Amino acid sequence: MAHALGIDVGTTNAKVAVVRDDGTLVATGSSPIPLVRSGDRAGIDPEALWSAVVSASRSAVAEAGPAAADVRAVACCSQYSSIVPVDRAGRPTAELVVYLDQRGTDHCWAIAERHPQAFDLWLERHGVPPVGSGLSLAHLLHLQLDRPEVHAATATWLEPMDFVNLRLTGTVTATQATMFTAQLCDNRSLGVTAYDDELVALSGVDPSRLPPLVSLDAVAGTLLPAVAAEVGLPAGVPVLAGMNDSHAGAIATGAHRPGVAGVMIGTTSVLLDTTAAMHDTDLDHEVLSMPSPLPATYLVWAENGLGGKALEHVLAHVVHATDELADHATSDHFEHLDRALAAVAAGSGGVLFLPWLAGSMSPRADPLMRGGFLNLSLDSRRTDLVRAVIEGICHNLAWLLPVVEGFGAEPVAQVVFGGGAARSTLWAQILADVLDRPVTTLHEPDQANARAVGLWALRGAGVLGTEDLVELIRTGPAYDPDPAARGVYAAMHEQYLAAFDALRPLYHALNGG
Asked: Is residue 23 one of the residues assigned to a domain?
């Protein structure tokens, strides 16, 4: 049977899967990626990222045994709106600037100051105006204008998946989809392989540093002999053009099916749907459609903000913290999560959690918003706080759901849940209760993206067809909304929405707005 290698490069981990053409995960590997944050800055050492990819790939290939000799193709997805500058030899000239990094926003607003027509022009052609706030256009301008020494040493700017593909193949490529947040393509047509000259000129971006574009489902190159030997694969295996992890999530959850939306909760929470046409951008709610590698499809892009990272922060720095008070460390912060959730009734004893620890995103983007626990009382316990965190993350998605439904062809009748969070049965039930929609979990949900790009690679190799991507979706348990919990969550959701508006002036005052 034919196999493929699927690579999923996240914000904090690289995951790799060897996938068989019947959809079976034959083997997996993972390796951590160190993320460094300080104020408005967020970065990753590109060499550490590449080392994580190699380590995870080597582990998966070794576990796969003889099946690795039959790997027919490789594909990679990654977190995006993150830029790594590289020289002509493919060596990084600076750290990878991550989507959490806010630098360069001032240069984006300056575009509209120089060119009054820019805002409307970007909306018409690309879909997103040049507003910065963590988008790659801001990162490009930051590297070019604020760090001229980096710009001088750089041959091209790449998103993480395209950087990985460069290291795999020795060839620089990108696509209309991987360069989406660089905001330099006319997205009214799918499959364009050139940047829009007017958008490039008005932006002030140096066009000589932009990577060449290939078609959305092209072969980016073939696996270099040295890399193949290092990870244990045959040399010359084709490597497909990359995609972002939201595209992979849509394939994993089958969000391109009518009436189905995908929810992927890893570091962030993303709500996914698809549409056959480019919609007008909903600026009020920060939702739009982006080119997708799936044929004749745009992905409805709804980045909800921090998801699992908010829970991880509370577990690591509040519940299981090691500090001057005591040592509450544990080897696995999530080991007793479901037991803690089961000990608390719906509504977390009235405690409401706001998950905007790094600012809010869709459906109301504001980088100055922050998180918090509301309505603590003398009866509140740490198990209440933990359940409140998960409920707050789900309330954030419930706030977004009707906006995303407005982009799709049909109302969302089913939610397919993937990402590491979907390993928790009680998280899945809470999601169903808060969204008031049936929720189906993916089988092996924390490997969903790696598996999806592995299947995509087999499609690119001609082993599978597009229709097989749906047929091979493997689901786990399904959860219907609990009517007893519905009233509790409906009432709390009203106060969740009210908290955003009520606390916004306070957060702006505290955070320099």
From this structure: no
Q: Kindly state whether residue 479 falls inside one of the protein's structural domains.
A: no
Instruction: Supply the range of the domain harboring residue 118.
Output: 81-158+178-215
CA dist., res. 230 & res. 224, Å (int): 10
Neighbours of 40 (CB within 10 A): 13
- For 235-390, where are the E strands, in sequence order? 238-240, 243-244, 260-265, 268-275, 288-291, 298-306, 352-354, 372-374
Cβ atoms 216, 52 nearer than 8 A: no
Confidence at 285, pLDDT banded by 50, 70, 90? confident
In the structure encoding, which two tokens stand for residue 162, read together? 């395209």
Contact 507, 476 (CB under 8 A): no
The domain tally of the chain equals: 1
In a domain, residue 55? The reply is: no
Q: Is residue 284 part of a domain?
A: no
Q: Are 157 and 172 in contact (CB under 8 A)?
A: no
Half-sphere exposure of 275 (CA within 13 A, CB side): 20
The CA distance from 61 to 177, in Å, is 28
Q: Which residues contact 6 (CB under 8 A, 6 or more apart)?
A: 16, 17, 18, 19, 74, 75, 76, 77, 449, 450, 451, 452, 453, 454, 455, 456, 457
Tell me how crowded residue 70 is: count the other CB atoms within 10 A of its CB. Answer: 15
Q: Domain containing 153 — which CATH number? A: 3.30.420.40
Has residue 513 got a pLDDT over 70?
no
Q: In the sheet that 96-97 helps form, which strands lie side by side, from edge to edge?
A: 36-38, 41-44, 96-97
* Least confident segment among 21-25, 281-285, 340-344, 501-505: 281-285
